[in-house]
Amino acid sequence: MNNRTSMRTKSTNNTLLLLVILLCLVVAGLGFHTYNFQNEVQQREAQLIDDKERVTAQLDEELSKYSSLLKERDALKGELKQAQSRLLQLKETLRDDDLSRSKMQQFQMEIKRLRREREFFISANDSLQLETKRLVALQQETQKALDLATKSQDSIQKSNRDLAERLTQGARLTVSNLAARGVIQRNSGKFFMTSRASRVEMMQVCFTVNDNQLAEVENKSFYVQVLNGRGRMIGVERNEKFEDGSVVRYNTKTTIAFNKTAYTICELVLPVQQMEGGDYTINVYHEGSMLLSTILSLK
After folding, report:
1. Which SS3 state, helix, strand or coil, does residue 11 take?
2. Considering only CA atoms, which of 83, 82, 90 is closest in space to residue 114?
3. Which of 59, 168, 192, 223 has the CB geometry, 3.0–4.6 Å to 285, for a possible disulfide?
């Protein structure tokens, strides 16, 4: 009986010892697992902190580059500001403590995308600047060509004006062979020249209208004006006003059918009183312009 009791006691002790050993092993394993788990959590937290710092640095770098671009690239300012705003939003979101590794990966992907956009903006702006330079150069060349064309046109217009002026000048009628003399008319109708003022009954004025192939074929009027030494007209004074506002005082008016060939005109000017000795001025006008003048001296 005692032996059986002793054996049962010994078996129980062995069982308890075994359970204690197993419990110790379980506790040791659980402690080891807990230690590893804590180490892993700490490592992950440390990695997240590193990732956060790295992403923050990348965001700051991109923000700095976008800020520089905004100062230099006026043509893309709208797009750059939008991208810069997205970067600022990312940076603000990054300050949240509730971050996971997947979110950090999303941040990095967004940064890469914004970086590609920035590089695209730079490339597009550079292309735009090159195109702008090309257009400016083309505009300058076009302006030079336009200036040359304008100068050429101005030169042609001036030449045309000069030619038109020469043609106008060339179409103007001229007279020559202007001669004046005091005359006496006999009963036979013949005229005899005299230089004695007391015997002069009238003054005969002759001149030639020169030929002109540029002048129009039409009626042309010529005016003879005779002035004494005091500048007063002899005979009856008449006046005619022209379209340009000029006025001609004249003694006689002769109208001819001009046909481009020379034509000789002779006019008689009758004094209203006896002629006096001295110099007389004879002027010939066509329209409002004086064409020729001469002096007749009477004794």
Report:
1. helix
2. 83
3. 223
Average pLDDT over residues 75-96: 66
Amino acid at 188: S
- Return the axis-axis angle of helices 77-94 and 2-72, rounded to nearest 10°: 160
- Tell me which of 113 and 264 has the higher pLDDT: 264
Q: Identify the burial level of 36 via C-beta atoms within 10 angstroms of its C-beta, where 0-12 means exposed, 13-18 middle and 19 or more buried.
A: exposed
Residues 6+ apart with CB under 8 A from 226: 180, 203, 205, 233, 234, 235, 251, 269, 280, 281, 282, 283
Q: Residues of 210-222 as b/e, b for ≥16 C-beta within 10 angstroms?
A: eebeebeeeebeb
Residue type, 192: F
What's CA 2's distance to the chain center, in Å? 129
Pair of tokens at residue 15? 């069982």
The structure tokens 């005229």 sit at 191
Which among 203, 195, 205 is positioned nearest to 297, based on CA atoms?
Answer: 195
Q: What is the DSSP letter of 288?
A: T
Judged on CB neighbours under 10 Å (0-12, 13-18, 19+), 280 is buried
**Cβ-proximal residues to 74 (8 Å cutoff; 6+ apart), any chain:** none
Helix (H) or strand (E) holding 147, with range, is helix 101-171
Edge-to-edge strands of the sheet including 202-209?
191-194, 175-185, 202-209, 263-269
- How far apart CA 120 and CA 114 sit, in angstroms, is 10
> Would you call 95 exposed, middle or buried from its count of C-beta atoms within 10 A (0-12, 13-18, 19+)?
exposed
Beta bridge partners of 219: 257
262 close to 211: Cβ distance less than 8 angstroms: yes
Backbone dihedral angles phi then psi of residue 7, each to the nearest 5 degrees: -70, -40
Q: Residue 33 carries which side chain, given as an amino acid letter?
A: H
Average pLDDT, stretch 225-249?
A: 88
Task: Tell me the average pLDDT across 108-114.
Answer: 73
